[in-house]
Amino acid sequence: MIKGLCIHRMPYFGGNVSKDIHKQLGLRKVINACGSYTPFGVSRSSDGVADAVAQSLKDYFVMSELADAAGKRIAEIYGVENVAFSHCAAGAITMAIAAIMVGNDMDLLYALPATKDLKNKVVIQSGHLVNYGQPIEQAVRLSGAGIIVAGTEQGCSVEALDKALVGEDVCALLCVESRLCKSGTVPAAQAVKRAHERGVPVVIDGAAQDLRLDEVIGFGADLTITSAQKYLSAPTCGLALGKRHLTECMQLQEKGIGRAMKPTKEGIIGALAGVEERAQMDMGFWETVQKEKSEAFAKRLNQIIHLSAECQPDQTGLPFSRVRATLDEKAANRTAVQVTALLADHNPMIALQDHELKLGVLNFEIVGLNQQELKTIYDQLSVLLD
Ligand SMILES: *Cc1c(COP(=O)(O)O)cnc(C)c1O
Fold first, then answer.
1. Cα angle vertex 231, ends 99, 149, to 5°?
2. What is the pLDDT of residue 4?
3. What is the pTM assigned to this prediction?
4. Which residue of 79, 174, 204, 361 is 20 to 30 Å from 98, comparing CA positions?
5. How confident is the model over 353-380, as pLDDT tens digits?
6. Pocket lining: 89 vs ligand 1, CB cutoff 6 Å
7. Which residues of 82-114 are buried (b: 16+ CB within 10 A; e: fewer)?
8. What integer pLDDT is reported at residue 2 of this predicted model?
9. Quick check: CB of 90 below 6 Å from ligand 1?
10. Who's near 285: CB < 8 A, 6+ residues apart?
11. Of 128, 69, 82, which Cα lies nearest the Cα of 269?
């Protein structure tokens, strides 16, 4: 791999996007320090991925052959049996649960979301009831399945999980790997083991975990779901990696409730290009660059009066840190909420993570930003807090 070329092409280093679309439509540019965030277009693709997508749009394909070939290639790279594609990870959750419930029985498939006489309850730990823009329960219920919540707000013990798994109607366990999850849940590998001991198949939603996908696949779920458009920086597409039979049953769902969740040719080809590019990347080098970038940015923010910044590793184990800056609201005579609102009003819009704003903390995810954008953030904060 030629490193210099890779830096230029890789979106994580802050890619270059079309200059014209924003202008033509009179749109503001966004400096997105939220991370792989759907409301801002999620990620920036490399030239290589964008070229593959552009090519795909100009031609016809036998879609089933395309999905088979791309799935085979991605399955080889990750060492799984097979891969199913969907429009996005949320769709993959629905299609996966539907596939587990009905298998390859077409009558049952066409009857969905009616699940009469089927095992139709999905166990999910309370701390996994995340909202990624939609409550995850709804992605399950769309299939016709219902939910059994294991544990309480306070957490879920192994015993509480076991108790939920023995239910007669239980068809699957759904686990979530995300920084949105609450603490106090049964670790994924252990939860998978418990479910398998009871003959219950497991689906893991690791939508934003592509940077540690090998580890998440290693937890042993029957299907591991991820999004192609998050850190992989491909077009929107859901991937479900795992057991051949289940992935094939999932793809069958396109003839039923999965019609509205089907993958596009550009999604499949873009996802494959993203995976191939990732497989060729020197991840150690990437991590070093990210580390230096976040440390330098934290150092810079520390020079701004009333701000004290530090790097914070990702809590799920993704290989990068975010920058967390505490604002002395009294001394600054402004709250973090006010500062963030002013940054959002700026042109280009500057968008930060908002989960700790009420505590006076500004959180920046800068993986997808370039130096020019980081400078703009620094300049604006300096002006606002001076
Ligand atoms: C982003 C996300 C999703 C949804 O992914 P899409 O590909 O946008 O449908 C689901 N679960 C988690 C944990 C996510 O972070």
1. 45
2. 36
3. 0.94
4. 79
5. 999 999 999 999 999 999 999 999 999 9
6. yes
7. bbbbbbbbbbbbbbbbbbbbbbeeeebbebbee
8. 37
9. yes
10. 3
11. 69
